[in-house]
Design goal:
The complex is a heterodimer of chains A (about 525) and B (about 300). Chain A has about 525 residues and is an alpha+beta fold. Chain A has helices at about 5-10, 55-65, 115-125, 135, 145-150, 180, 190-200, 250-260, 275-280, 310-315, 320-330, 355, 360-370, 390-410, 420-425, 445-450, 465-475, 480-495; strands spanning about 35-40, 70, 80, 85-90, 95-100, 160-165, 165-170, 215-220, 225-230, 245, 285-300, 335, 380-390, 410-415, 435-440, 500-510, 515, 530-535. The chains are: A alpha+beta (about 525), B mainly alpha (about 300). Chains A and B meet through helix 8 and helix 15 of A and helix 2, helix 4, helix 6 and helix 10 of B.
Chain lengths: ~525, ~300
Amino acid sequence: MKKTLLASAILASTLITAPSYAANVPAGTELADVQDLVRGGGSEPATLDPQKIEGTPGSARARDLFEGLYNLDGEGNLVPGVAKSYTANEDNTLYTFTLRQDAKWSNGDPVTAHDFVYGFTRAVDPATASPYAWFIEIPSITNASKIINGEAEPSTLGVKALDDYTFQVSLDRPVPYFVKMTAHQTMFPAPKKTIEKWGSNWTKAEHIVSNGAYKMDEWIVNEKMVFSRNSHYWNDDKTVINQVTFLPIESPNAELKRFQAGQMDLSYELPNDHFKQLQRDIPEQVVVTPMLGTYYYQFNTTKAPYDDVRVRKALSYAIDRNVITKFVTGTGELPAYSFTPEVVNGFNPATPEYATWTQKERNEKAQALLEEAGFDKRNPLSFNLLYNTNENHKKIAIAVASMWKKTLGVSVTLENQEWKTYLETKKHQQFDIARAGWIGDYNEASTMLDLLTSTHGNNDGKYNNAEYDRLLADAKTLQNPSENYNQAEAIAIEQDMAVAPIYQYTTKRLVKPYVGGYSPNPEDSIYTRDMYIIKH
Amino acid sequence: MLTFILKRILEAIPTLLVLITVSFFLMHSAPGSPFSGERTLPPEVLANINAKYHLDEPVINQFFYYLGGLLQGDLGPSFRYKDFTINELIAQSFPVSAEIGLWSFLVALVIGVGCGVIAALRQNSWVDYSVMAVANLGIVLPNFVLAPLCILVFSIYNQWLPPGGWNGGAWPYLVMPVIAMSTSYIAQIARITRGSMIETMHSNFIRTAKAKGLPKHRIIFKHALRPAMLPVISYLGPAFVGIITGSVIVDVYFGTGGIGQHFINGALNRDYSMVMGVTILVGTLTILFNAVVDVLYALIDPKIRY
């Protein structure tokens, strides 16, 4: 699943043009007369305002309604969206995008560079109070941090419309993956007139205008959201699906029933308990793809004995990841020995040594290390294992606890907490070892590795290694940061075992055999406009 | 009677105020905030969000902001569904649950009372046992089992009914939610009716009626049913509120978009204004229907006069 490195191409400061993006129906495919697609939508999105969206259900819908400068294809590569091409200056701090002139909003107005300036600016404007404001800070767009902090006017953000169709972004430092980030909804254009007219009501079905392949017809909270073709979309000719309905269903079991009854063509997820049976009964409809995320256990390194690397290593070694992925989760996950999942674009995490040992060897090492740390039968280690209330987390916790008990004689008390309470507990380091998981925001290793830097807001285990911090800070400006990433992995996992990686996430969906063009990338960006319904 | 109703309305105000105050502070004392998530937001970003929703101010100030809005009929913005206000969300979801609820209530009342009366009249016969056995199934079969079971039978094995959705309340979308919603109420009502009916049938005035040689249907419908209904009515008041304010199971399984799931999700998401909104709604309805029950009592029971 390795992807070729795009960064070099991006950094070459050349003009990039690629084939346009839309449904690619193979010759000879007979299309169905009715091109209406019903998709499972996960939970109801908190908002459809692109600059404020924070959850994946919202992103999934925003990809159909809006379009940014670039899109990502099934492999995570860049495909032009509203931008036809771009150039970068020599030190890669000034990006100039040339926009296509046929891009239009659903009310027929042209999509201009000013709409992007407005979109980027309102994302950081404190008045918008966007939970994703930090997304503009990550690529170091000039003045982004100051604006968020209220120290500068939003109008001073490093974005400019040179003319209606030329959009320029200035960065304080070169960030190799900046262009890829423009596929994210936070960097989408925003319709100024509409937003100023309707205020926070602008996303309602009766007011919203959008520049993507679809426009909104109906939004009934917790029942459905219906989109139809945006005839003004620049690539509308190549779009096949006429209407897409998102059904917001939080329970995977309830969703499965509706899929089985034929009310849905593409599910959002599938219940783990039914995975084996579904693979037996309808194998062609179960589609599993790797996802950019890692499931892991977090050690509270501020607390003895988890500040002792021997204890952390012993506990991590004693987890038989193959048993977890094969028998406990059993839905196509890959065991994880590194923090960065293998599917990440542009970086191939080196295999840490412990991954090459047999489980027996790992167990022996684990026993020796724990003994060295001063724990044995007379002085057994005992602790709480915290997880948020969920059947799958519980199963994994039981399995891991019994592995620890059997191999190391450790006694573990399982502690489950409701989601928000669990987050608070972790944030205040009131835990010994806690379940955690992270899904990347953009397809680049730093989306994972930054998490273990000492100042990161999600480093709940408070892992702190100055060399690690330095490697990641330096990596931000390197043309090829892979070497730094490998060293960082070696320090955080192989040397310090800051966390115990357990498995790499997968995206699991049910897809009716007549749905064509479904190809999710590791970030799970799927676009309805790529899909089509085959005659059945 | 009029003074009685007026009195009940006046009494409701302090009750509601206590309810609002207690719920508000309880809700705000729960750990976490509406904006805590897997990703810890950078402090400056969080500060901007908190400022927007007044969460950076002392809870007591927030309480008065809330009361101020409430007096103008504004239940505030939702912290979870950020594009909607609580007024909009309740206006969208409550009619759905109310429609499912009203139908379920009617079904439960007719079948429940019917079963109860039949069982009581044939007390300790096989009719009694079988009717009550079926009714009791409703109690042992919780709706989180019944809902998926219905979908399995009516939508997957036989494609008779749509497995979910609402579609403006078209009847095929209504059938399964009503079944799932009414079953346990049928059982309860049948049990209460049976017990009360048996008691009434053994009372002196029924014996007198029998002794006078009145026909059986007259004894039952004219004399027995009315007093036998009193315990049922006192059960129906709160039950009615419960049934029209929906159920999280029905909303989750059938995707009806009703108000039921807002109770659970509002609390889990720390959507403060949603929790307050549904609490006020249920509180008001409960007070209202308890008053209605009292009025009904007065109408049915000649011993009660206000």
